[in-house]
Amino acid sequence: MFINKKILGKQMFTRAIVRKPCKAMLNGLTSASLGLPDYDLACEQHQDYISALKECGLQITELPALESYPDSCFVEDVALLTPNLAILTNPGADSRRGETQHIAAAVREFYPNLEKISAAGHVEAGDIMMVGEHFYIGLSDRTDIQGATQLIDILEKNGMTGSMVEMSEMLHLKTGLSYLENNNLLTFGEMHGHTEFSGFNRIEIDIDEAYAANSVWINGTVLVPEGFPKTLNKIEQLGYKTREVAMSEFQKLDGGLSCLSLRF
Ligand code: CIR
Question: Which residue of 21, 164, 223, 242 pairs with 73 in a disulfide if CB–CB is 3.0 to 4.6 A?
Fold first, then answer.
């Protein structure tokens, strides 16, 4: 089995799984009113995203486009990869449920024994934020109590912990939260004042830069969506190296930076 390295108490990532966007992404789920994505530009942005992951030291497994699932490039939602355990989720969105069977083979290459959330419950891993060996699980329209309960049981059987987070305003938990290690947490909207996160050094994201609340720490570098200068500056003030990534075509489908990869 693949074992991650832990340096200075932080999880260092060595690999990522991504999936090429499909042409059917134009029919992807969205609540945004930003127009239809431009497929060619999305592919270009996806290639630059892969370059950014490589710059952070990750080896990439790039899966082919899956035309039968418009949202399938958002691989983060269909599996949770922890250092020693992988769990296939059961997405709350009907149109995304079948994506798990397509990610399974790629994940199994690195984690021979897969756990999974069974049909009684729903989880999308965009609702899961990893902080060391603890996993915060947002109860959203896509992740329910039954799914979160199953997930916590699996985590506990494997020496980790999980807790549920009430939420009502966002698609996924990490739409409004990003853990940048060193106790630093980007927070937006309802997440900022949430009692669950009062022990963190919370960095509040301005409403006009809400999309940048989904930024990603990878091995000391923070990937930040392009075009959000106040957030970029706040992250740099904390001492992080940053790398901007253009995300306009994925933002049109409510997809953020974390959604486009499974990092482990
Ligand atoms: C969806 O609604 O499922 C996709 N259009 C966007 C998924 C974004 N994923 C994430 O936030 N983890």
Answer: 21
